[in-house]
Write a structure and sequence with these properties.
With about 110 residues, the protein is mainly α. The two termini are about 25 Å apart. The longest helix has 17 residues. The chain is built from 5 helices and no strands. Helix 1 packs across helix 5 and helix 2 packs parallel to helix 5. Helix content is about 60%, strand content about 0%. The radius of gyration is 12 Å and the shape is globular.
């Protein structure tokens, strides 16, 4: 898993997404996970992401809406795994790794 995490982190850095001083995806907090996903989908499908905030909103209702929209955008990009607003509100390492590995693998070369 450490190898997958390093590939994900390098892929995120290659598109200009700062993730801080982390060694594994499991170290990402919810805000970093949200920012990383938005950064990826803006590269994968720029037309469907104009109104996505680059940072997770601080107000709970706005955060809920932004997380729901982001999960739908990721699904529209072709992700078939389980994802929803709760993926961003209540993060876990395995789910973050699966989503980010898929997104990074779908970045244009």
């Amino acid at each position: 898993m450490a190898e997958v995490d390093q590939l994900v982190i390098l892929g995120l850095q290659s598109i200009g997404c700062s993730v801080g001083e982390v060694e594994t995806v499991a170290e990402f907090d919810g805000d970093t996970f949200f920012r990383a996903c938005v950064s990826c989908v803006k590269v994968i499908d720029p037309q469907g992401t104009e109104d996505l905030p680059t940072e997770a909103p601080g107000v709970t209702t706005a955060r809920f809406k932004a997380c729901g929209k982001l999960s739908k955008v990721i699904q529209s990009c072709g992700y078939t795994g389980e994802i929803g607003f709760n993926s961003f509100m209540y993060t876990n390492g395995a789910e973050m790794r699966a989503v980010l590995a898929w997104l990074v693998s779908n970045l244009p070369a």
